[in-house]
Structures are given as structure tokens and as C-alpha cells.
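Bumping with the actual sequence this time:
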Amino acid sequence: MVTQSPHNLPEQPNAMLGRDQELKAVREQLLSDDVRLLSLTGPPGVGKTRLAMAVAESVLEAFPQGVWFIDLAPLRDPALVGSEIASTFGLAEIRAETTLTSLAAYLRERHALLFLDNFEGVLPAAAWVGKLLERTSGLKILTTSRERLRLRWERMILVPPLPLPDLDLPPDLPALAGIPSVALFLQRARAVNADFTLSQENAPVIAALCIRLDGLPLAIELAAARAGVLSPAEILANMDDRFRLLGMGALDLPERHQTLKASIDWSYVSLPPAEAQFLRRLSIFSGGFSLTAAKMVTECETLNLDGLESLVALAEKSLISRARGPVGEPRFALLESIRDYLLDRLQASGELDGARRRHAGYYLELAERYYSERNKGNQKARFDRLESEHDNLRAALQWSLDAGECSLGKRIAAAIWNFWWLRGHMWEGMRWLEPFLASSGEYRDKTHLRVLEGAGTLRGWQKDYEPARVFLMEGLQIAQELEDQAATTRILGRLSWIFWVNGKTEEAAWVAERMKVFPLDADPWELAHAFLSLGSLLYEAGLDEAAEKAFTRSLEHFQLAEERSGAIFARSKLALLKHQQGDFREANEEMVGALEAARQLNDLHVAIAYCVDDATQLAALRLDEKNVAQEPNLKRMARILGAVDHWREILSLRRSPLDKSAYLQIAGNLQQRLGEGAYLRAWQEGQSIPVERVIHEAIELLKSTCQPGPRDGRLPEGEGISITLSGRERQVIGLVAEGLSNQEIAEHLFITERTVRFHITSIFNKLGADNRAQAVAIAGRLGML
């Protein structure tokens, strides 16, 4: 029979939820032979004490002389720590000056664990604890603290908030109930309302509530305590005043754990005045901040503080945390509960307005620096930086509207609209751009012009064609008034793009005529994009010769500007044009080259989505419909379509009318040839394939479909020539023989007129024909009709 070790651990009223991994990690560390002092650190309300208590209960058998719990929270004098420990062992009569000697003598040979809870309030006593460890051999100490003890003996484990649900996933009730933060809410809600259940209706609300509460166990328990009188939706609706809502917990909890505000307040009031001021100024940031931003916005130099040292000190006190940001840039964040508390403090101090103004000014400077450098170097790195600061940019924009500082917010919006466009935030971009246009009156300057350019581009991509055209035409008029050739170039390029995406091919000649006057010394980046847009519009209109010239000029300017992504787009379009002209080998090589260049982008990009889509069109034109051996290629093509569809959804990319028609034709043919079930399985598989593998599959598909296949129609053997037409090509030449026009053939076969032209060009090249009549005659002689 095993005798339980002595202990004084208080019994816990509820089972601990969601800490299995942390419990295992802490236990392993504590029982390691080389660990004498282990500290659990973390922010207020994260559950350090509850986890440490569970660990202490789990290791009782490892300490024959006992596990002893000492709550240091009531102490205000660090000199009393030794006496408090001594009294736990019944040695209360020891004189203060001899406490260390007497305790060391008592514990020297004992294998015991001291659990010192809430050490942050008596940190100067850490040196005393270190001396106690020096004079004992079997003693181990487990502490909880919002700040480390800074002893050589010390090992630390940061206790994180509870794992949170993902709002992007559909509500699966069993899975949601197993997420620790949700499980804790349900446990505590049922304690006050026995009928409380998780349902399809309240599941999204409970998930959102746990996220708003940062996964902090204390905050979740206090919120769940309201479930006796409020629904989850009502609790969430009151979260804007979370400290009133989370005002009173169980009366048998320590006073500073009965409310969330008291728990945070305990940490805040212990800070030196300058550090407290620095911390509350940090609350002006949304979604995290960089070191540079913190130093500028808090004006830490006026507080006689070093920004980095102050951030490190606050992180060590668990009041801020490291956050994920762009590579190579240290970034920090506040839990929302702590941020809300500090914003109240900031407002009470009279500093809120000044902090908001400095914050908006800093992000205006960041946005305009991005705009001035938008065509230089690594665009992805700059976009990643803006993405990490998106919440702060939103806050600055909203403040400018609320405070009547519209000119400031308008400059930010004018500088970053193409970030919203290229990163798929188009709806949000319009949400910001249009209010600034409405607030501007007749003010016609370069900022207003750029906002019009952005609004027109985003509206056009959302298929709101008429407002897009109006915005861009007004922008073009202002650019001409200001004699701004660069802006004129840009906006004509935007108009081309919008006309293309919305199928307005009749405007192609109008744009082409105006683009003839582009200055030769214009920004190559802007010229490249303008000619790319014009080429796409001309290609859609069927003006292939003019489109080829525009794409060629676009590619030249992209190469001059060292802009790889645009060059990829231009090359893929040129490849389709070369195929149309009958130069199949060069078309294939050009497209493979574009895909190889796309592989170097190392991330999902608009150019990759377009390039792979174009490559699929090219491969589809080359596949022989009756060749059974092509089934692996058909499945490969279906996987590629699934991947591209997934990317387009992520990037908010729509297909032009011509591209959409070609896509529907390819997808329909694949479903017919593979069967609907096999096609759908391959398409779904493609949704989860990494970008690099999809590009590899597209290259292999092109290489395979470019190879000559089995011949369906042949010249007589004596001629020494073997010619094949695919099944679709034989259908087309048969309809040509019947006298149908390209448009009539397209309607008959449910394909696009451009695809018909592709097939006829291919037939002419294979048969060596110069016109339709000649092609029909040769096909008849070969028995292909």
C-alpha cells in the first residue's frame, strides 16, 4: 500500500480543462533532476495558479516529505516570505534574522516541494529563495508569477491562454465543445444554468465570445457566470463594457480574481509611473505594433525611457507579448482585455486624443512611404508589412473620419488602395475610399485623383461597371488638367483593365488610340501595367495583332522595371497568342518559361493564378479527346482547375467573360470524359495542393500534351506524311465544310468563338492550308469529313 505524501493543497471545486499538454510539460520539467526552481509566468487571469495546483497534485508521490502550498498574495513585505514558509512547517517561533539558517537546516535532507503562489508581489525576496536552494539538496520550488524571479536556478514556462475556435470553420458542435476555451465556458455556464446547452444557434456566438475574451480562463469564467440571466448573444453584446459585465466572480476567490479589472489593476498599479504611462499609451495600437511604432507613438524619449528596454520589461511582467510579424521585425501585442483596461486609463489621464493623433500621423507616414516605394524592390515584403499593420491603418482611417480629419485619412487611403486591391480586400477598400470622396467637395488634387483611381479599380473588379467608369473618367480628366502624364498612363491602364474584366471590348480602340501618346520616359512600371491591361482588352476583342504588340511592349517594360510578376502575366498571354498563330512549339516553350518564373515567386500571387489558368487553356487545346491514354492528364488538369479556383477565391479574382467561357468549356469537357465523380474528386484534391506542386503539375501537363500522340487521320503511306486531327478539330472542319461561320460553329459546339479560331488555325497549320476552302478539300481527300 502506497502512503500519500503529506501536503496542504486546497481541494479544487472544478476539474481543470484544456491544459493536458501544459500539465505534461510542467510536470516533466519539475521532475527533471537538473531543475530545482520552476516558474510559471503569464498574463493576469491566464490560470497560472490552477495549472500549478494541478501539477502539484500530480507529483505528490515524488516528494516523500510533502508538497507545501504558500499563497504570497496577502504579503506586502518581501522580508516576511521566510516567516510565511516557516509557519507552514510549524516553525513560526523562529526569529526573522535566523529564518534562512533554520529553514535550510530543517529542509536540507528533505525531498519536498514548495509551491510559492503569486510571487510577483514580493520579487525582492527572490534572492532569499536562491540562498535557500543553495543550502538544500532535495528541495524543489514551483512558483507562479507575472514576472520571472531572475535567478540562475530558474527555469520558466509561459502559460498561454486557452486554445480558441476558428470562426472560419463551420460550427461542428462536438468538435467545438472539445476546444478548451469553449469547454470551460460550457462547464461554468452549466454551473449557474443547468439547462444551458450548446446549439447550432448559439455556437458561433460562444466561439466569438471566447475569442473576445482572449482565451483567458478568468475572463471566460466570469462571463459564463452571467449565463444564468443572459443569453450568449446578450453577453457578447455587452462586451464593449467588459469590466462592468465581468464585475463579480465567486466570493471564495481571492479579491483580485473576483473581477477581471481587479486582476489587471493589481499588475498596473505596481508599475513605476513612467512605465505605466508608456504602457497605457501602447493601448492606442490595434492588432500589435513594431518597436519603431511604439517608440514614435508613445514618445518614450519624453518619458526618459528606452523603448526596447521598456517593452522587454513589460513582456517579462506578462503585460505585453511577442507577436508574429514580417520576417526580421520584432513585434508586440496586448491582449484585448488588457488593452481595454489601458484605454480606459488613457482616457482618464486626458492623453487619449493626443495619442490617437500621433498614431494616425505615424501610419500616414508609413502609408505614404509605401506608396513612394511601391515600384521598388520586394513588393511582397511591403505588402506583408501593410498586412501586419492593417488593424492600425483601419484605426487611423476611422479616427480621421470621426475626428473630422478627413484630409489625413484620405491621404492614407490614396496611398494604400492598391494593397487592398492586390491582397483581395476590395470590399473593405471601397468602404474607406468612398466616404473620403464624399467628404472632398470640389477639391481636385493628386490625392483626390489617386482615390478616384482606387475607387474605380475596386468597383470595376467587383463588376460595378458604371460607377467604376465614372470614377476613372473623372480621374483621367483631373490627370489631364494637372498635366500629370504618369497619372494619365496609370488611369488609362486601369480603364483597359476594367473594360477587359467586364467584357467591354468595344472600348479597346478608344483606349489604344489614347495610349499612342504615352511619353517614352514615363515610369516603366506604370507603362508595363498599362500595356498589359490594353493587351488583355485587345485580346478579348479579337484584335490579335494589336494585342501581341501591347503584350510585347508590356513585357519589355516589366523587364526594364525588374517586375517579375507582371512579366509572368505578359508571357502567358503571349504564349496563347503564339498558339493562335500556329506556332505550337514556341507557345508551349513560352508558357513553360512563364510557369518556371512563377515558381520563383515562392508564394501565392495574382500572377501565378492567371498564368496557371492560361496554361490550362493552352493544354486543353492540345489534348486529344479520343486518346484514352490521356486520362492521367485529364485528372491532372482537373486538379489544376481545383487549385486555381481555390486561389481565385482567396485572391478575389474574377475571370473575364472570355476566360470564364473557356473555363466552363474545359470543366464541362473534363466532367464528360472523366465522369462527374472522378472529376469532382480530382478537383477537390487540387484545392489543398501546395502552390509549387500545382505549378509543377502544370509544367508536366504542358510537356505531355505537347508530345505527338496516336494518329487519327493519315495521308496515304506513299506520301510519307502522317497527319492527325483531334476529335474536336474534326468536328470543327466538318462544320466548316457545311458552310457555318465561326460564330455559328461556336453556338453549335457550345464553345467560344475564340476557341473556334484556335481550332481553325491549328487545322490550317496541320493540313498546310491557307484558307477554309483549301482546308475542307484536303480534309476530304484524307477521309476526315
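The C-alpha cells above came from a reply further down the thread. Residues 249-253, 624-629, 708-721 have pLDDT under 50 and may be disordered.
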